[in-house]
Amino acid sequence: MFTLEPTAVLRDVTLRDGLQLTGGMLSTERKLATIRSLLALGVESLEVGSMARPDLVPSMANTLEVLAELTPAELARCWVWVATPRHVERAAAAGARNFQYCFSATDAHNQANIGRTTEASLSAMPAAVEISRDVDGQIQLCVATSFTCPFDGQVDPSRVVQIAQDERAAGAAHVVICDTLGQAVPAQVSSLITRVRLETPAREIVFHGHDTWGLGVANTLAAISAGATMVDGALGGLGGCPFAPGASGNTASEDILFATRPPWLTPDVFGSLVRVSETLLMELGEPNRSKAAQGARSPAKAFDWVL
Q: Which residue range or ranges hold the Pyruvate carboxyltransferase domain (predicted)?
């Protein structure tokens, strides 16, 4: 199987970050079917929606309805994007127990994305943590634009470390390091993940990458080698931030899985995953950017991973 060591959990973010830049919309029923298909195949963790304003991100308008239909066992494997304590409160009331509290390393992107300064988002985090604890949930500190900002350019790594060290983020179970624009390179990813691991409170590290410059998989592997225990991807490389000029698709889940080969991923399971992805992308009118999915459709039938 050639499973990558050390191992990391894939979190598929198709139904949140993957849908943000698409013109297509998915019904509650279609989202639930996708969630259940991916969980049944063995995908260990999913991001299933966002509490962003539906007038700004219409594809997230039915997030609360999706959460309300999931079982407790399903919800235990699902995450929801939040940016305020009120978001956490509303998502928790619908059943969510895993919250990704996100803000940017730079004020410019945080203002564009969330409508407040980074300091304001950080100051509100203890209240968000408290609400998550009240429902026996867990919360992540998610630092967008950890490497580059579409407005300010290069981000000082010490800025990200400083945020992760801040006592107001102490209640976070994980810290998510985001290459929002997909402009980082492997050595840069490895360096920042290592600094966060060594210089900030002990907790799990998540890497969220994009494939804008073709280094999504390479950066993901570098993050895992440096200590990330969860990595994000989206089916077919869907997605990107609508408030970050120059952002493009997430690193494809198919590519990450093919590269890392978790024990649950067999050629047959991979084939089923590719089919789920192809059907969804066709419905959305989106191209399939996954190299592994394209490879699975090659005529080289002697290779076990070809459909």
A: 8-274
Distance, CA of 38 to CA of 130 (rounded, Å):
31
Residue 60 resides in a domain: yes
The DSSP bridge pattern shows strands 153-154 and 148-149 to be antiparallel
CB 47 within 8 A of CB 16: yes
Number of structural domains (the chain) is: 1
The answer as to whether 300 is a domain residue is no
Which CATH number covers residue 65? 3.20.20.70
Give catalytic status of residue 241 as yes or no: yes
Length of the chain: 307
Q: What is the distance between the alpha carbons of residues 178 and 147, in angstroms, rounded to a whole number?
A: 7
In a domain, 270, yes or no: no
Read off φ and ψ for residue 88, nearest 5 degrees: -60, -45
φ and ψ of 173, to 5 deg: -80, -30
> Do the beta carbons of residue 235 and residue 277 sit within 8 Å?
yes
Which is catalytic among the residues 78, 142, 178, 241?
Answer: 241
Domain that holds residue 235: 9-265
pLDDT digits (tens, 9 = 90+) for 183-230: 999 999 999 999 999 999 999 999 999 999 999 999 999 999 999 999
